[in-house]
Amino acid sequence: MENTEKMIRTAHGSERVLAPRAGKLGKGGGKWKATVRGLFLPVLIVGIWQMVGSLGFVSPTLLPTPLEIAEAFVQLTLSGELLAHLKISVVRASIGFLLGGGLGLLFGLLVGFFNKAEQSLDPTFQMIKTIPHLAVLPLFILWFGFGELSKILLIAKGAFFPIYLNTFLGIRGVDSRLFEVARVLEFSRLQLITKLIVPAALPNILLGVRLSLGIAWLGLVVAELMGSSEGIGYMITDARQFSQTAIVFVGIIIFAVVGKITDSFVRFLENRLLKWRDNYKGEGTMA
Amino acid sequence: MTTSNVLQVSSLSKTFEKPQGKVHVLADLNFQVEPGEFITIIGPSGCGKSTLLKIIAGLDVHYQGSVTLGHAKIDKPGRRQGFIFQEHRLFPWLTVEKNIAADLSLKDPEVRAKVDALISTVRLQGFENAYPRELSGGMSQRVAIARALLRNPEILLLDEPFGALDAFTRNHLQNVLLDIWQQNKTTMILVTHDIDESIYLANRVLIMDAKPGRISRIVPVDLPYPRKRSSSGFQAIRQKVMQEFEQVEHMRRVER
To answer: Where are the transmembrane segments (chain B) (predicted)?
Structure first.
């Protein structure tokens, strides 16, 4: 379901343009081939879905056809509604992520470096980690109201832990033999952090960022579904009340697509920053 | 870079406390290394030769006796004592030139010039921007040597640096090391388990004995460089070293 947005676009024929090129392009062709391979299943599902809907097997209130969803998408886009909702959602998720992720990185570094910080802080964090969003939501609303603050804090709470945990793990996983090198080269304390520990922990930190971004989006859904007057989550709740199932689908697809885009961005960062790594990339990859 | 700093090792001992009792890793070592010497240390495994090297490097400070370089006691690692490990231990996220510079900035023209000069010394031109994963074992070890040399150490300590390399690469790197030694006059102390390597490089071979670790003999090698492994002079010294080893073996059997 996640890729429905893409499916719709390719269902309109762009995929057919790409396919014949695939064979001739060499390296680039390999990339297209991989894309086509990834699209095959979604396109098939969408095709069957459209057929089932068009033939009238399922009520459109329960499951609108892909074309109806596309129509709703176009309408929402043209009226500017979608963009407005999306904007507010993105702002909330970003602030929440920056707050939670930033604190996660900070405390992850702190707890990773200092044993005393680990002993005094980590048990508390581990306890807070196990509390689900839905359990603290009533408290957050009680304390901070229905406004932006409680939403952002909820998102931040979710985004905090993956970065915190992975930064900590990354620091503790640094090859101790390299510390000996740092001693021989007389690294200062600051250099030890900036030249050895952070670069060595970077793969884990970026993994934490990826997971945190995903959780920030999940937190956003919970926050917006619980009560708000704007945002993609609100758009979904509102549409559900009026049985506009197609709009519900548009909302879900938007969540999926934006989630995928942010994930791709971090992967892009990973490829740039971690190109020194020499890891197993799976069978049958190209170069 | 010549300095009049003598390395002085006096009544150096090191013991481990183990449940079975005290284990003497090193027992009463005494020797002195003049600036510009090339010393190789050879001995059976467990004779404490690597431990000795780590003590001189300042990486291991739990010992009795005294180790001084010039007038200063060695009690921590530092740039005066460069160290090459058996594995290259490069930073995998840095390119060759950045690994050599390590904590220093390549934007500093002085560092830049030195790094460039070292890259040509260890014959790695064209690989400045390669990552360690793209290098062979011998190339990586050459980067590690360049990294140590950039800091102008008074003494370069090498812990079986070529042990993991194939014979051809090893010979090549031995020559690279000799070139560097003759150019820079850096004092070298190299630990090895390869008798030929120890004679090929050193002007004095320190033979160690195990349990307790002590120096059983110091063999001077008065052969001109470059040496030929097949020459009769080389073979004569080889004979001498072998005999020393056999004697040690024999003594140990008699003691049992």
So the answer is: none
- Report the percent of chain A where pLDDT is more than 90: 35
pLDDT digits (tens, 9 = 90+) for B194-250: 999 999 999 999 999 887 888 988 999 999 988 999 999 999 999 999 998 888 777
Min distance A90 CA to chain B CA atoms (Å): 33
What pLDDT score does A283 carry? 65
- What's residue A271's pLDDT? 87
Nearest to B131 among A180, A184, A276 (CB): A276
> What is the CATH code for A77-273?
1.10.3720.10
Judge whether A201 is closer than 8 Å to chain B, CB to CB: no
**Cβ B43 vs Cβ B32: under 8 Å:** no
Residue B178 · residue B226 · CB < 8 Å? yes
For the domain B1-80+153-244, what is the CATH code?
A: 3.40.50.300
Residues in chain B with CB shorter than 8 Å from the CB of A178 are 89, 91
The DSSP code for B134 is G
Write down the ipTM of this complex. Answer: 0.83
d(CA B57, CA B158): 10
Residue with tokens 């406390």: B17
CA A108 to CA A166: how far, in whole Å? 8
The predicted pLDDT at position B255 comes to: 67
